[in-house]
Amino acid sequence: MDPSNERSFADILPPHDGSIIYTSLKNEPSVLSFFALYTKPIVIIPPNKTTDPLALANFYTEKHKHDTLLVFCPGRIFDINGTRHGRGGGWYDRFLSHIPAHWVRIGVLFPAQLSPTSLKRQPWDEPMDFLLIDQKGTWSLSEVAPKRNRET
């Protein structure tokens, strides 16, 4: 990722009303530390993946239908094009496929999880808009290219 493309969090993200974040597993970046000074409402996806992603997406969409939310997603590996590969169950892809297109998707990763080459994107893979990289507590945020259509 080209550091010259990195800008401050406030400069790069569109105006938003809140965030949906995940409960991190032991080998995932804890996005909660990123939000230490964050004041907008935060909704946390429980670590229980038995929750139906479509029902959860529909619930949040109905509750926040007039809002713009940031949706933070973990993954096993990402590329600079916004392709995200998870743990193989498709939970986040199903969730993301049922939320409003204008909600902003942010992949959260450690530097070692950024692929130096493009990943194969399957038809069901839901792309990210930004990558938030945890470099031992120092966060960097970059927009992916090409941009995903976020029109509603």
Notes on the protein architecture:
- The protein is of the alpha/beta class and 152 residues long.
- It has a single domain (15-143), classed as 3-Layer(aba) Sandwich (Rossmann fold).
- The protein is 14% helix and 24% strand.
- Strand 4 (77-78) and strand 5 form a beta hairpin.
- The chain starts with 8 loop residues before the first helix and ends in a 9-residue tail after the last strand.
- The model is unreliable at 1-6 (pLDDT under 50).
Task: Give me the secondary-structure topology.
Blueprint: H1 9-12, E1 18-22, E2 42-45, H2 53-63, E3 69-73, E4 77-78, E5 84-85, H3 91-96, E6 104-109, E7 130-135, E8 138-143
Parallel strand pairs: 1-2, 1-3, 3-6, 6-7
Antiparallel strand pairs: 4-5, 7-8
Predict the CATH topology: Rossmann fold
Q: Low-confidence parts, pLDDT < 50 over ≥5 residues?
A: 1-6
Q: Give the overall silhouette.
A: globular
**Cα Rg:** 14 Å
Helical residues, percent: 10-25%
Q: SSE order in H/E notation?
A: HEEHEEEHEEE
Keywords:
6-stranded mixed sheet, 3 helices, alpha/beta, Rossmann fold, single chain, 152 residues, disordered N terminus
Short description, anyone?
The chain is 14% helix and 24% strand. It has helices spanning 9-12, 53-63, 91-96, and strands at 18-22, 42-45, 69-73, 77-78, 84-85, 104-109, 130-135, 138-143.
